[in-house]
Amino acid sequence: MIGNVHSGNMTRDHAQKSFSSYIARLAPNGDAPLFALSSMMKQETAVAFNHGYWLKSMVFPSVTTSVAAAIGDSVLQVASTGNVIPGMVFRVDGTGENVLCTGVNGTGAITVQRGFGLVAAAIIPITTLLIQIGNAQEEASLRPQPFTIQMLFDQNYTHIFRNTWAVSGSAAETRMIAGNGNVMESKQDCAALHAADIEKSFIFSQKYVGIKNGQLFHTMDGILSVLTQKSAANITSLGGTTNFTQLEVALDPVFNVRTDQMSSNDRIIFVGGVARRILNNIGRANGTYQMVDGQTGYGLQFSTFRTTRGIFRVIEHPLLNAFGPASSYARMGIILDMAALRTAYLGTRKTKAQDILGDEGIDAVGGTLTSELTLLITNPSACAILWNFTAAAAG
After folding, report:
1. Chain centroid to CA 30: how far?
2. Kind and range of the H or E element at 312?
3. Helix, strand, coil abundance in the chain, percent, nearest 5
4. Which residue, of 2, 36, 42, 128, is most buried by count of CB atoms within 10 Å of its CB?
5. How far is CA 165 from the centre of its chain?
6. Beta bridge partners of 320
7. Do 105 and 74 contact (CB within 8 A), yes or no?
8. Domain range enclosing 229
9. What pairs with residue 25 in β-bridges?
């Protein structure tokens, strides 16, 4: 009797995989490591070329005084009352006094109950920060005013990628003494170029929509463009030398926000060859090692480094090395929180192969790979770019 066959008892590699999954399995160290990793990212389905999505960040309310407040003042002049509602309790930085907000007076003042706790009221200087430390309500209170976290709308355009393979009829029938033949060789080259083109756009593309040959034409916003627009504070150009302290300061902002409740303080850093060497030398310059008689190998090679707040896993990206060690790309690092990245294919337009046997009278065989997708970065603040790795220093 033949057993019941279903998707649950298939062998792991029996079911057909997506194109990005094949890249991850067959060429994990190839030209498209980020595209390969996209097979393990969350995925969405786009229903139009302009794919929109909503972002929401946790709010930590605070106010800053715009005028000094005397001990007896019950109205505080503040720079902004955004995100403040009655019932919130604030702590005065510097004095430790807690105050209870009892009313919001427009956009520039709040009414408070001073000395709300054990610490007595004191003078509050101008530009003093008051952070919200909770809320407090009386017994049998009326329903308090709701507090709503505002959502932000963002969007990216889908990007159509097409790569073609082609072999003459004669070449297709020529038997090779090595390899899988000209047809298979051309197909493999086409697949590698297709993955590399998607990878390049993930990093370098800029959002565009227009008309080409009378048809709608659109491209996605890539990582460098998105971070430049939305997380410029996390972009650092390093100096002539970089020590570990300077590296940690440059990377520290990526841990000030968390993408979701399941994310961790792990980041991937894609680097060019020069940047990788400098990172390795920073580790070597800030550590000690000994060579003893009898050893047949020496040196240090780091694939991970740790700062006070997180872990960075270093991956050398071959595309960043494509233009030589003198290029700015070989000297850069792209830091990504993979939990913040996801892809969205338009409908069913995941990578499809269309083979053509005998192309309208042309004595050749060929085919095309087509993909239409976009990249979403839901938390740019958890990512960063480092430019100009030049030399390592101790310290």
Report:
1. 20
2. strand 311-316
3. 25, 35, 45
4. 36
5. 33
6. none
7. no
8. 14-54+154-288+301-387
9. none
Q: Are 207 and 223 in contact (CB under 8 A)?
A: no
Q: How far apart are CA 22 and CA 11, in angstroms?
A: 16
Provide the whole-model pTM.
0.79
* 365 and 284 within one domain: yes
| Cβ proximity of 200 and 192 under 8 Å | no
How far, in Å, CA of 101 to CA of 135, rounded? Answer: 9
User: Tens digits of per-residue pLDDT, 341-382?
Assistant: 999 999 999 999 888 765 567 788 888 999 999 999 988 999
Summarize pLDDT for 300-318 with one digit per residue, the tens: 888 999 999 999 999 999 9
DSSP secondary structure code for residue 308 in this structure: S
**Does residue 364 lie within any of the structural domains?**
yes
Amino acid identity of residue 223, one-letter, is I
Same domain, 48 and 66: no
Dihedral of alpha carbons 12, 17, 22, 28, sign: negative
Residues 338 and 206 in one domain: yes
Closest CA to 269 of 260, 261, 280: 280
